Amino acid sequence: MNSNTPSVVGTDLNPEKIPAHVAIIMDGNGRWAKKRLLNRIKGHEKGSEAVRTIVRTCREIEIPFLTLYAFSTENWQRPKSEVTALMSLLKNFLESEKTEMLSNNIRLNAIGQIERLPEDVRQTLHKTMDLTKNNDGLRLNLALSYGGRSEILRMVKQIAKKVKEGHIDPDSITSELVSEHLYTGDMPDPDLLIRTSGEVRISNFLLWQIAYTEIYITDTLWPDFGKDEFVQILKDYQGRERRFGRTGS
Ligand code: FPP
User: Fold this and answer.
1) Would residue 206 count as lying in a domain?
2) Is the distance from the beta carbon of residue 28 to the nearest atom of ligand 1 less than 6 Å?
3) Were both Cys, which of 29, 56, 67, 117 would link to 141 (CB 3.0–4.6 Å)?
């Protein structure tokens, strides 16, 4: 094993086949709470703990990029009390994890319509991103007020503007150019997308980027999702044959 090979100590994962980018649709907080006759917010609180566990595990296993769908553009339509609670959980998470991110070489990044977030959350977010910007370990990418279609619209507008101004020739527009104009422009596409709570849909997440991503759906509700299951999903991923549209041979 050379120094660039990921550390998989304590797991039976193949260090040569660690995904470069894992994306997760964290679903089921509300159902977790409902099953226990608790307020939905309690489910989100417990969900925040699962976020901490999975971030820590990605760092241990040396997965380079983790993207978490924390708040969608559609989530603004939830009751005001729930939106406020989610924003406050996010702020608490950023504040409480700052030290751990710094000492563990984690770089925080955000994708989505960050300008729509409340001022105090935005400030904390920018402060944490700035503080961790030179870290070159795990890139923790939080999708906040994120929607895949609005990301694509934003990219189309940016490219159209450059065409109009004469900076881009329409015939030279490639997939790479499109990718570069997305929020994830400097990241590899996800190798693995996990969705918890059993729903079999994409929910407007990373629409362009997941063209060849392996998908894993688990029935586990997000607050119950932990290291053991995550490692078992990575093991399943390592057993898959990725063909990217080609034949297996
Ligand atoms: C989906 O569960 C989850 C969300 C809309 C928010 C995800 C938020 C967290 C995990 C906690 C805060 C995030 C961070 C990064 C600290 P749901 O409410 O749709 O569940 P349901 O489908 O069972 O109702």
Assistant:
1) yes
2) yes
3) 67
Is the CB of 142 within 6 Å of ligand 1? yes
Domain range for residue 201? Answer: 17-147+189-237
**pLDDT reported for residue 136:** 97
What is the tally of structural domains in the chain?
Answer: 1
* Strand residues in 130-222 grouped as ranges (E): 139-146, 192-195, 214-217
Cα torsion 215, 217, 230, 235 to 10°: value is -50
Quick: pLDDT tens for 163-192.
999 999 999 999 999 999 999 999 999 999
Does pLDDT of 2 surpass 70? no
Active site residue 186: no
Annotated active-site residue 236? The verdict is no
Which atom of ligand 1 is least distant from the CA of 33?
23
Which CATH number fits the domain that encloses residue 49? 3.40.1180.10
Which atom belonging to ligand 1 lies closest to the Cα atom of 82?
A: 18
